[in-house]
Specification:
alpha/beta, four-stranded mixed β-sheet, 17 helices, binds pyridoxal-5'-phosphate
Length: about 450
């Protein structure tokens, strides 16, 4: 860190508490202050350029420095910088974006509610479904089913749905009725001698057992990321979602697809629900909806849910939920332009093509002594580092390899994400095949340094 007491780094340390950061360690290292971005690159305040292999936080789909989004925001700011959507007020960008989302998503999804973040969206989903079930005369139908390893956000309800210990510890979470089922990650959770198909049978049976034990009339919904992201990029086993869906439908349990990371092309299909054959009752999207140029999330849901909620508003007077910036006109204008860019520039197809290169390039590391598993779909992937390749033993402490690799990555000009010892990749969807090769080459140098550091 710059030793100058008034450097930008020193002032960061003086004033800021950072999310998901060890504050004491941060006081020593200081921040990397990112100053600008262009395409797949970002540049820090010392002039160092990095390939952003994580698209920021799984989110800058169209890349950095996209002038069309800046122009869309500018135009909308001059015309109408803000208006709320309470008590029947509306604005054109919000209406057009809702219409667009319904058009490009599954037929079952007919209605939209906007929030500012994925966490708020998932809290809203919980409240909407509770509200609905109270209205349906099923006040006991409140429990959510989620999975260990899931990430659904960090607010009180969404943080409860999240199945990661670091997001619960010392926060008194979970704080809503939720049951976390086995993480559907075959490589880690599959048992000795168990085939992938047997693993799916076991998870399906677990779901049936949990429903039978609690009673279907107490379970409101099953929420899941089609492909789990922030917990370590874990694609589900073959056939898993079709089984989960069949069981939930049979028991009147709503299916919520959390596509906050997956949505808008990440897997090479517009939605990951398309990829896995999921037909959700509710879909949550955010991040790539605006490429994170503006904070925005949307909940898409069925007309059946809408009608139940609408009837209750007539009965009790209102849907008493919403945020000051729900359906923010600038965020929605940016979202509309962003989706137009994704369409016009064929970024879903590009994610598929460049994704194939990413998966192929990373597959080379399967034989590396530090690598336990390489996994992913399209332009999202992870390389899991292990202490013992044969037994899959984790490092002790967790992060012993991931943390140095993250640092070496910076030295070699690539920003990855280390989730413990799972190294995640989720680059902007504009990335070209040759840029994928360069990104992976930089990762390889960091991996070589990590191996030397641990030796
Ligand atoms: N859901 C998923 C699947 C996510 O990956 C995230 C964030 O990474 C969230 C919800 C929470 O979104 P936010 O950080 O915007 O609150």
């Amino acid at each position: 860190m710059s030793a100058l007491p008034n450097s930008i780094q020193a002032r960061d340390v003086r004033y800021l508490l950072h999310p998901v950061t060890n504050a004491r360690r941060h006081e020593e290292t200081g921040p990397i202050v990112i100053e600008s971005g262009d395409g797949i690159y970002v540049t820090d305040s010392d002039g160092r350029q990095y390939i952003e292999a994580m698209a920021g936080l799984w989110s800058v789909g169209v890349g950095f420095g996209e002038k069309r989004l800046a122009d869309a925001a500018h135009r909308q700011m001059l015309k109408l910088p803000f208006y709320h959507s309470f008590s029947s007020k509306s604005n054109e960008p919000a209406i057009l974006l809702a219409e667009k989302l319904v058009e490009i998503s599954h037929e079952r999804l007919q209605r939209v509610f906007f929030t500012n973040s994925g966490s708020e969206a998932n809290d809203t989903v919980v409240k909407m479904i509770w509200y609905l079930n109270n209205a349906r005369g099923k006040p006991q139908k409140k429990t959510f089913l989620s999975r260990l390893g899931a990430y659904h956000g960090i607010t009180i309800a969404s943080g409860s749905l999240t199945g990661l210990p670091t997001n619960h510890r010392d926060f008194d979470l979970p704080a809503i009725p939720v049951k976390h089922l086995t993480c559907p990650h075959y490589w880690r959770q599959g048992r000795e001698g168990e085939s992938e198909a047997d693993f799916v049978d076991r998870l399906a049976q677990e779901l049936e057992d949990v429903i039978a034990e609690a009673g279907a009339d107490t379970i409101a919904a099953f929420i899941g990321e089609p492909l789990m992201g922030a917990g370590g990029v874990m694609p589900p086993p073959e056939g898993y979602w079709v089984r989960v869906q069949e069981i939930c439908r049979r028991h009147d349990i709503l299916i919520v697809a959390d596509e906050v990371i997956n949505g808008f092309g990440r897997l090479g299909t517009m939605f990951a629900s398309d990829y896995y054959g999921i037909d959700p009752d509710v879909m949550v999207v955010s991040k790539q909806i605006t490429s994170s140029y503006q904070p925005l999330a949307a909940i898409l849901f069925s007309d059946e849910i809408y009608q139940g909620i609408a009837d209750n508003t007539a009965k009790i007077g209102t849907f008493g939920h919403g945020f000051t910036a729900s359906a923010h006109p600038v965020a929605c204008a940016v979202g509309l332009e962003n989706l137009a860019i994704i369409e016009e520039n064929g970024l879903v197809a590009n994610a598929k093509a460049s994704g194939e290169v990413l998966q192929r390039e990373l597959a080379r590391f399967r034989s590396h002594p530090l690598v336990g598993e390489v996994r992913g779909v399209g332009l999202i992937a992870a390389v899991e580092l292990v202490a013992d390749k044969a037994t899959k033993a984790r490092f002790d402490p967790v992060g012993k390899a991931g943390a140095p690799l993250f640092g070496f990555g910076h030295e070699h000009g690539v920003i990855v994400r280390a989730i413990g010892d799972q190294i995640a990749f989720c680059p902007p969807m504009i990335i070209r095949p040759d840029e994928v090769v360069e990104m992976v080459a930089r990762f390889e140098r960091a991996l070589t340094d990590t191996a030397a550091h641990l030796a």
